[in-house]
Amino acid sequence: MSNSQDSSDALSEPESVAETVSNTPRPIDDSMFASLKERDYMFLWIGMLGSAFSMNMQLVAQGWLVYEMTSSAVSLTYVTLAFMLPQVIFSPIGGVLADRIKKKGIIGWGPFANGLATLVMAYYVLSGEVTFAHFIWMGLFNGTVMALSIPARTAFIPEIVGESLMFNAMAFNTASWNLARILGPALAGFMIAIFADGDTSSSFGVGLVYIVLAVLYLVSAFTVLPIKHKGTPTSNSDKSPLNDLIEGIQYVIKSKIVGGLILLSIFPFLFGISINTFLPAFNRDVLQGGPDDLGLLMTYMGVGAIGGSLMLAKLGSLKNKGYWVLITSVMWGLGVAAFAITTNFNLAALVIGFIGLVSAINMSMNRSLVQLQVSQSMRGRVMSIDMMSHGLMPLGVLPISYLVDNVSIQVGLVTSGIILVVLTIVTGYLMPQIRAIDKGYLADST
User: Fold this and answer.
1) For 147, left (φ over 0), alpha (ψ -120 to 50), or beta?
2) Please, is 8 exposed, middle or buried when counting C-beta atoms within 10 Å of its C-beta (0-12, 13-18, 19+)?
3) pTM of the entire predicted model
């Protein structure tokens, strides 16, 4: 069964009200792979998987080479900052675009542009001319493209699958990222290790990884073509783009549930994902590992995360979702603190797998709940504000990086985990509207 419409229909109906599938009655499918049975979502998911592989492989490749070039955790943070800063600046523009023009074009051109830019980066790495500045510029470009395209991609999902399959689809959306964590980092790490042939400063393997990244980005772009659904806005706004943006911001501020959920998604990005930034340093300095070990650690995190995603795919009818958002955030922070004090690789792998599991459940459930509180005409802007807030991650990572450089990486990560736990508990106590969320479909968003 498909809720898509032919392209000819999309052209004949500019308003494309027929595309609004969220109001179309449908039998409820509670099977684990329900959303993947939707043809358009299957192609969208394959494209997300390609982009997710590219990003996870890039984390290992750039993290390894940058740390070899600089031996500085602060340098790793600056590379992360270059990628995240555009999300703060350009995500609101991406949200307005998602609510004003057809989403299909946006999500197709995004990975295509990243693929071309990655080919250029591969040339610099393979030629031996790469500098730290190249990683900064690449981060700025990738971050800008993502900021302009991800709000449309995320808001596209409920239009395709309908609200009844939102938790299932968002779980597989997260699973596309986490499946890439299982294979992508290991592939990147082993490629670097094999082609370096014992020379850890060699950039040849990293250059080959970047070629693979470019191919995956281009595959992600071309899988958009078979999607029949155009993602046409439900109405043509007679307001200016600036007014549309202001309207979205005002909605988030006034909605206690939407604003609270976005706040609870910011804290993990500030203090939970710090473990990803400092993993190359922790692997080398604490665990005494090489690039293949770094790839394995990220793979174990992916194994846990894919497990969490599959669990959530079957938990659409779970009650007390507000409490579960809070509980998984606290467990995420405790996991980061526990990981920091490990010195054995096997124990570190076990803990990082646990972090992957609870983080996947937390992020997918949070984002699903947010989308279920807003109308289709507002989803692009609301999701862009959510994404923009995640661009604030360096505000948490940067001070932690100074602890890493000036005290120890263990102290930095323990501090980061504890802050996440405290902020989550305080927010949960002060916002009873979040605790009151049950299944999420009928929660009061005022």
Assistant:
1) alpha
2) exposed
3) 0.68
